[in-house]
Amino acid sequence: MWDWIESAFSLWESGLFWLFAVVACGGAVSVVISQNVVRMALGLIVSLSSVSALFFMMSADFVGATQLMVYVGGTIVLVIFGVMLTSSSKLVKIKASPADGALAAGIGVLFLATIAFTVGSVESWKASANPETRGYNYVEGGPATGNTLRPLAMSFVGLRPDAPGRSGYLLPFEIVSVHLLVVLVGAAYLARAKRRVPTDSQQQS
Amino acid sequence: MHPLLAAPEFEWAPLLLGVLHVALVGAFFGLPAGIFIWAERKVSARIQDRLGPTRTGGRFGWLQSAADGAKLIQKEDLAPKAADQFLFKLAPYIVVVASFSAFMFLPFADGWAAVDSDVGLFMMLAMLSLEVIGVILAGWSSASKWALFGAIREAAQMVSYEIPMAICSLVPIVLLGTLNLNEIVQIQAGDWQGGFPPMFNWMIFHPVAGPAFICYFVCATASCKRAPFDLAEAESELVAGFLTEYSGMRWSFFFLAEYASMYAVSGIAAILFLGGWDDGLGIHSWLKNLGWGGALAANLFGAVVLMKKASVLVFLQIWVRWTLPRLRIDQVMTTCLKYLIPIACTLFLAAVVYPLILVSATGRPMILPLEATGERVGHPSANDRIWHGAEAETASLSEGDE
Predict the structure, then answer these.
(1) Angle in degrees, 0-180, between the axes of helices B209-223 and B341-362, rounded to the nearest 10
(2) Could you tell me the residue ranges of all domains in chain B?
(3) Contact, B344 vs B212, CB < 8 A?
(4) A76/B381 CB distance under 8 A
(5) 3-class SS of residue B236
(6) How far apart are CA B278 and CA B183, in angstroms?
(7) Is B129's CB within 8 Å of A69's CB?
(8) From the CA of B11, how many Å to the nearest CA of chain A?
(9) Contact check, Cβ <8 Å, A80/B383
(10) CA pair distance B109, B309, nearest whole angstrom
């Protein structure tokens, strides 16, 4: 009896993985199937939150938290726009013709097949069990556990305590931040109150 | 995690610990919320020269929250006919779960956090920001104009106030050099030095972080949609805002989440600016060094201290609610975009520049004749494998940022 309980508990990690994986896929499917814009957004939130839960299970706290903050938080803004653009006729359903559905399904399956084929063909991702064919990104002692923020942050400022001699990610990090700054400035420029162009009559007076 | 628990025959231990943590955090999530609902009634009554609840449960009516809860459970679970039934019923749960999850990262005493994460503060803010999803879904699915108005107001308010709130909470992070809530308090704690109590290590006495505390507290009040920022509810304009169509237990879930998130943001404020579980007079560190059982006593004492500090801040929020009138939506937006965001950005810049100026002028990052900060107690759970062979680099870095 005790052995049975123990073995059942030892499966909790893979059980949680399957739970969140199924919920993530279910949420994504419900985005496509649902005909109501707010329910679609809810499906998106469910799917993205489950992905962040998968990140937490892999000890990638920072990525998981960012997923929640940026993607799930960004979906809120999406909901607001959905509500604002459809609030006068909330019961209108979004319908597509069967031909559109078939076309979309075909493209989706092809895309999934492409990704699955690509993932399966990367030698260094599937070979970690075999020491002969280990890829360059194999880490001794298995994947990282515990608090992974500090090494991550260090590699963003160009230090790699986990792999001495290898360069960090300072340049990509800076490029991305400058890019985001440009986007912010552009958004502020587009959204600002426009100055009135003085007409001829005002200029004369 | 204790090394014993990592043994293969204890593989199920993390699950057991998880259940235990959730139960404990659930108690600290629900009970204070009930007490604060009672406090809100009492404080509002006293401010308005009334008595408030006096009969339920003896002289001060301290059983009022329990009586309310019993009443609300018995009420019929109604949903309007025109509502989107599924979303209408789901929304209160989203709000409660988001507010509850934030508590998983709050350390109640030294190391007493359900999840001791290096991104604790970031996680708490991310979890608390999810609460708005439930409010928007509630407002939209009610199929009522009042509810929709309330939800859209709440969305606009939340999206804007999150920015200064996050920037203000970055100020102590920059000064202390860690996002781990446990370490933030460990650095602020200390001993008596040169006649100064260790209280002066708290961030609120820092010339930059002190103003940031006030700015943070205003934003935190707004993010809990408390008066004077309670535009989502606005009972004198919008009936009850996003709550208009709710009744019974689902209605009370929204209130449970509101009071719990008041407690959560106050807990963050206490940890970031008020020294967390450190009492400021050295009692905590004295208890800790007593020897056998001293650490446990120190932690129990620290948990009481932290809850006291957070409760005082919750009391402040209640006080403000019953003293100030509600702002208009344009005034709310002006307060945030034209005042709070520039103030927060200036403080953030000052937090970066001030230590540099002070170090170059006096050679020390502080004015008071104290040691710079308390001791940073290392994390045994930090990723030892990755740090192996890089101690020298780490040591030079941690000297640099303290």
Answers:
(1) 160
(2) 79-375
(3) yes
(4) no
(5) coil
(6) 12
(7) yes
(8) 6
(9) no
(10) 13
Q: Find the farthest-apart pair of alpha carbons in chain A and give their distance in angstroms, rounded.
A: 96
Q: Domain-by-domain residue ranges, chain A?
A: 1-109, 146-192
Q: Quick check: helix, strand or coil at residue B193?
A: strand
- Give the global pTM: 0.80
HSE-up of residue A65 (Cα within 13 Å, Cβ side): 22
Cα torsion for A128, A133, A135, A139, to the nearest 10°? 40
Peptide bond into B228 cis (omega under 30): yes
Contact B62, B72 (CB under 8 A): no
* Distance (Å, whole) CA B33 – CA B56: 18
Tens digits of residue pLDDT in B178-232: 888 888 888 877 666 666 777 777 888 888 888 999 999 999 998 888 878 887 7
Q: What is the CA radius of gyration of chain A?
A: 24
User: Using CA of residue B311, residue B314, residue B318, residue B323, what is the dihedral sign?
Assistant: positive
Confirm if A54 and A20 have CB atoms less than 8 A apart. Answer: yes
| Overall size of chain B counted in residues | 402
Answer whether A96 touches B (CB < 8 Å).
Answer: no
Q: What is the ipTM of this complex?
A: 0.75
Provide the b/e sequence for A64-76 (b: ≥16 CB within 10 Å). Answer: bbbbbbebbbebb
Rounded Cα distance between B148 and A134, Å, is: 56
Instruction: For residues B341 and B172, give the distance between their C-alpha atoms in angstroms, rounded to a whole number.
Output: 17
CATH for A1-109, options being 3.40.50.720, 1.20.120.1200, 2.40.50.320, 3.40.1060.10: 1.20.120.1200
Residue A147 forms beta bridges with which residues? B382
**Which of these ranges, A115-124, B69-78, B149-158, has the smallest mean pLDDT?**
A115-124
Would you state the structure tokens that stand for residue B204, as one six-digit string? 């609120």
Place of tokens 């509101």: B258
Distance from CA of A149 to the nearest CA of B (A): 6
Q: Packing angle between helix B248-273 and helix B85-103, nearest 10 degrees?
A: 30
Q: Rounded to whole angstroms, how far apart are CA atoms B186 and B110?
A: 8
Contacts of A39 in chain B (CB under 8 A): 84, 86-87
User: Consecutive sets of 10 residues in chain A, 205 residues long: mean pLDDT of each?
Assistant: 54 79 91 81 89 84 85 78 61 71 90 88 60 54 63 76 71 90 88 70 55
**Alpha-carbon distance values, B14 to A35, B6, B17, B26, B182 (Å):** 41, 9, 5, 18, 21
Chain B: give the shortest CA distance to residue A104, in Å.
27
Q: Name the H helices within B177-228.
A: 181-188, 209-223
